[in-house]
Structures are given as structure tokens and as C-alpha cells.
Input
Amino acid sequence: MFDREAAVDPSIREALFAQVRLHTGIVMAERKWTMLHGRLRRRLQELQLSGYEAYLALLGRSKHEVGCFIDLVTTNETSFFRTPRIWQYLEEHFFPRWHAAHSGATMQIWSAAASTGEEGYSLAMLANEFRQKHPDFSYRILATDISRAVLDVAAAGSYAGRNAKGLQASRPEMVERYFVPEGDGYTARPALKAHLTFRPHNLYQDLTEPTRFDLVLLRNVLIYFDEPGQEAVVERVRRAMAPESTLIIGESESLHRIRSGFTYEQPLIYRNTKTA
Ligand SMILES: C[S@@+](CC[C@H](N)C(=O)[O-])C[C@H]1O[C@@H](n2cnc3c(N)ncnc32)[C@H](O)[C@@H]1O
Output
């Protein structure tokens, strides 16, 4: 059975890194090998393959395996209301300002690289809280990710374990209002889910959407790309956004080093100031 790290030739490692990059845009190098090997090893055992040469050949002929590969090589860590200052900004500044300027319109929100959905449901809860005070406010959230496995979790809306406990501890009233208990955790109520659509999407491809987004959360995914990749992705995302719309990125990310049509507003928050 395949298991020996030492047996993997550097050219095979390179070929696997190239496959990661080809299918996701994620840039991996030698220092990521132990992690990648750890993630792929079990898959090779499941498939009863003799080694990575056979696996690379399979990747070349099987779309299904490419999907499994993407699920394995992506890092899907997330949580509800991750990075508190963002949610405070949305609640206190973005929602009121947008609502005042767009009376009667539906706010279009995109959670790009949404992982298992905690970000999308956090957005929905916050928008719903705003709607309680402003009944004419409406919103729609599109949540996308390249990994179908995480999107299945997101669409089910059932959470248990660390993330569920975290939300229960920090915002018990939200769990009470927007989820129903189930097993060791809880599931999003249909009324909340109704505002969310989940769809597979690779950020290196154009998003085919008729509407332009007012708010995009593109968080904790740019760090996996190199600068040309970041520039390409950010420009694609920008083209899906309305003029003067808002982009929010992750805590360890910045747009300072790339060319983009966004103007810095405050840490992690940018405005789409390019007109075309
Ligand atoms: C660390 S998670 C971030 C989740 C969430 N945005 C957050 O900040 O908590 C990164 C996500 O990016 C997704 N991803 C990686 N490459 C992608 C690509 N090329 N297109 C779309 N999603 C991608 C991964 O599948 C993963 O779920």
C-alpha cells in the first residue's frame, strides 16, 4: 500500500503542485509538501493506487477525481462572524448607508470563497437583524466556492462542533432566532436559508450573474494565490460589482501590492471606484 513520503520523486511533487495550481490557482511549493502529501495519501489508499504516477494519470482522465482533488487541496477553515470589526462596520455603517441611498432596492451580496457557509449565514443573520428595524430592506446572498464538498455543508446549513459552539457562546440570541436544534448542533431555519444561494465557482473564471453586487466578501483566499493571480481574481470580482460597491478582504490580506480598480477605505475595506 502507498505511504512512503521518501519514495516521492521531486519531479512528481512538482507535477502535483502544478495540478493544484492548474485547478485552483493555489500556489504551493516544497515547504507545503508534507501537508499536501498528508491530504492526498489517504485518497491514494482509498483508490488502492500504487503511487502518485498512477494518481496523476487518473487526474488527467477523470473529472470526478479532479473534484475530489480540489476538495482535498483547499483549506476551508472559517467561522461565524470571523473578524469582529468587519461585522461591526457592516452593521453600523454599511447597511444604514446603503439603505439610505437605495430605497426599495434589493441589496446584492456575494460571499466569494464561502467555504462551509458560516460567512454567508453570518451575513444573512446581520441583514435580517437590519430588516427587523427597516422592513422595506431586502437582500440576497450568493455564496460560492470552488470545493463542492464544502458547498454541500453550506447548503445543508447544519453545524456542530467548534464553530457551532463558538456562535452559541458569543451570540446565543442569534442561534435561538435563526437555527433549530439538531443532534449535537443546530440547523439554519428555512426562513434564513431562503435568502442564500450556494453555487460552485472558481474565482479564476467569470461569474455569470445578471446582477452586479453591492457588497462582496472575498476573505482569506487571496493569500493562497501569487500576486499576478491575486490581480486577475480581484479584477474579475470587481467586474461583477456595482459602481461604488464595497469589497471586504481577509485580515492577513491587502490590495496595496497589486493594481486594482479599488480605493482603500479603511483596513480590509475597499470601494469599487472604477467605472467600467
Ligand atoms: C480559508 S477559506 C475562507 C472562508 C471564508 N471566506 C472565511 O474567510 O472564513 C478559503 C476558501 O477558498 C476556497 N478557494 C480556494 N481557491 C479557490 C478558487 N480558485 N476559487 C474559489 N474558491 C477557492 C477554498 O475552497 C476555501 O473554502
